[in-house]
Write a structure and sequence with these properties.
Layout: H1 2-7, H2 27-38, H3 43-49, H4 73-79, H5 90-116, H6 126-159, H7 162-182, H8 194-216, H9 221-239, H10 242-253, H11 258-283, H12 285-305, H13 316-322
Helix pairs in contact: 5-11, 6-7, 6-8, 6-9, 6-10, 6-11, 6-12, 7-9, 8-9, 8-12, 10-13, 11-12
Length: 325
Amino acid sequence: MLKSIRGAPPDIRPEETNRFNRTSTPVHYEAVRDLLHAFPGGEAGFYAGYPFAVAPPTDDHPFFFHFFRWGQTPRVLATLGRTWQPFGGSGYLVLLALLALVLLLSALLILLPLALHPQAMAGPYAPRLRLRVVAYFGLLGLAFLFVEIPIIQRWILLFGQPTYAFTAALLTILLFSGMGSAMVRSPRVHVRVVFPMLVVLGCAAALAGPYVNRAILGWPDLWRTLAAVAGLAPLAFLMGMPFPIGLAWLERVSPRLVPWAWTVNGCASVVASVLAAILALSAGFTAVLLVGAGAYAAAGAVIWRNGAGDLRSPGGLEDASARTR
C-alpha cells in the first residue's frame, strides 16, 4: 500500500495539517511524508532515526505499544508526573526499577546467610567454592526462565489463547524436565553431553522455532499440539538435568552449601523473569532464547572447570573437590 501511495503525492498540504492535536511544527505530517519517501528499501533508516520506536511489531517482537528509546530518558525523567506521555517511556523505567529492587532483595537473601552463619557456611576453599556456587546455580536460574518465557510467548501464536499456551508450555517443560532430573544417574545418560546438547537445542529453538511454528500453524488443533510438544520435549528433558548435576557435585564437595544453592537459584529465577521482559522489549524473544542458551554454556563451563565430569564415577566428584582449591 505504501508503495502505491509513494507513486503519487498525497493530496494534502502542510498548512492543512496540525489543526487538532497542535504542535509547534506539523511533526505527524512530516513523519508520514518522510516514511513515504523512504519506502521501499529505506524505511529501516527512518525507523532508526525516529525519536520513538515505531518499527512495525513482529511475532518475535509483538509489542504494539512499546515506543521507548533510551534517548527519551532525560525527557521522561524531566516530565515524569507532570505531563501526559502519549508514547510512554515511564513504563519501561518501571521495569528497570523493579529489576533494581529484585536485585537488591536477591543480594540480601544470598549474602545474609553468610553474615548470620559464617561458621556454617565456611569450609575448605570456601571463598572460591561459594563464588562457583553462585555462578553455576545463578546461571541455571537465568537460563531456565530465559528459555521458558519466550517459548510460552511463541506458543500463544500456536494456541490462539495465552491461557492455553501458558498451560501447555509450562506442563510440557515441567513434565519433561522432571523426567530429565530423574534420569541423571541412569547409565544410559552421558552427563558430559548434556550442556553441549542444551546449547545446540536452545539455539535451534531460537533460530528455527519461528519457521516450525509457521509451518504447523494451519494444522488441526490436536496435531499442532502434539507437534509442538514433541518439538519441545527434548530440550525440556535436558533442561531438567543441570540442577541435579550441580546438587550431586555440591553434596560431595560441601553439603552444607546445598540449601544456599537453592536460594541462589531461586533468586536468579526471580531476577530472570524481570530481565527477560526487559530484553524481549529491547531485542525480541529470539535474543532471550539465545542468551538462555549462552547461560547454559557458561554454566557448563563452570561445572566442568570444577572437575565434576562423571556423576557415576565413584571417585569422580571426590577428586573434583580437590580441584576446587
